[in-house]
Amino acid sequence: MTDRIREFLRNRREDGPCVVVDLDVVRANYAAFARALPDTRVFYAVKANPDAAILNALAEMGSCFDCASVAEIMMVLATGAGAERISFGNTIKKERDVARAFELGVRLFAVDSAEEVEKIARVAAGAKVFCRILCDGAGAEWPLSRKFGCEPEMAVDVLEHAYRLGLEPHGVSFHVGSQQKNVEAWDSALASASAIFRACAERGFTLSLVNLGGGFPAKYLQDVPAAEAYGEAIFRALSRHFGNAIPQTIIEPGRGMVGAAGLIEAEVVLISKKSEDDPVRWVYLDIGKFGGLAETMDEAIRYPIRTPRDGDAVEPCVLAGPTCDSADVLYEKTPVLLPVSLAIGDKVLIEATGAYTTTYSAVAFNGFDPLRSYVI
């Protein structure tokens, strides 16, 4: 917790659970990514946290933006950033949304199928497209499924289809999995990208961009490599697979940009056991999966939790949210160790929650307000 967040929480009016993000940390993270890969443009993944203050700060620093919807595109344009700094990075778009984005000036679109190419060709003539490929997400704490991307061999056909329809086949993208702690994870994906570049050249058209995606981690319970380590490993892989003809590159940090910049302050609503001899207590908070902690699904993301009684003797606890839904349980497979002295009414701090919390917060489920957000 930064001193700025500590001071804010000390003086804030009590209004339920909230997330507080320190913009100084966001700015420092952007600068670290820019230094780590100086020849790579940074496209902040807006979905991680679209708060206007964060978008404005990043726009002022020169960031570009990866958007998943027209609504996110409008948020970015509201900062004064030009449409040339926006990528419509979702591979699943309504045709009318493609048309609207093109009308707003966006010219860079993600695809992963011939059908998506055809949508773009119909309403965004001459636009640039990059094809997302499937890749191994081994080492990621939040692996991405087969929902997005196509096999590398298919990508060549998709890009050629774009070329034949008058679009500009611009490049290749991939995502090595969110919260990726293996700095070498980009190597095999870049090998596939290089092969696609060569195959496209053989078919009579050239590519110029590799979108390296996101995956850069925030620190939760374990240390993670610094941005510089990722930059060095990625540059080695680019040199290995592209030689002296390194293409344009972009990255799409989201979690790594804002995750560690924020924390949630919550309150203990109830502490109980399921039987007299149960060795595990249940600690119910005023926030759960439906209030912003959706990434605790399958216990993939384990947030650091601090209490005012840290240092006292501890015992295993299951955490759960306040809603009338039995799925609103956070850590049951692997309970967390919390102080025996923890009491109803105590505040707890859930750290590294600046990303994928407000955007996953339910709208008035069970009548509970969406997660309040403060950016300072």
From TrEMBL:
Database matches in InterPro entries: Ala_racemase/Decarboxylase_C (IPR009006), De-COase2_N (IPR022644), De-COase2_pyr-phos_BS (IPR022653), Orn/DAP/Arg_de-COase (IPR000183), Orn_de-COase (IPR002433), PLP-binding_barrel (IPR029066)
Catalyzed reactions per annotation: L-ornithine + H(+) = putrescine + CO2
Catalytic machinery residues: C324 (proton donor)
GO CC entries: cytoplasm
Entry keyword Lyase: yes
Cofactors, names only: pyridoxal 5'-phosphate
Domain Orn/DAP/Arg decarboxylase 2 N-terminal: from-to ranges: 25-258
SUPFAM superfamilies, A to Z: Alanine racemase C-terminal domain-like, PLP-binding barrel
Record Pfam families: Orn_Arg_deC_N
GO BP terms in the entry: putrescine biosynthetic process from arginine, via ornithine
Keywords from the named record: Lyase, Pyridoxal phosphate
Keyword check for Transit peptide: no
Residue list for modification N6-(pyridoxal phosphate)lysine: K47
Top EC group: lyase
Annotated metabolic or biological route of this protein: Amine and polyamine biosynthesis; putrescine biosynthesis via L-ornithine pathway; putrescine from L-ornithine: step 1/1
PROSITE patterns, per database record: ODR_DC_2_1
Record GO terms (molecular function): ornithine decarboxylase activity
Protein name: ornithine decarboxylase
Lineage summary: Bacteria, Pseudomonadati, Pseudomonadota, Alphaproteobacteria, Hyphomicrobiales
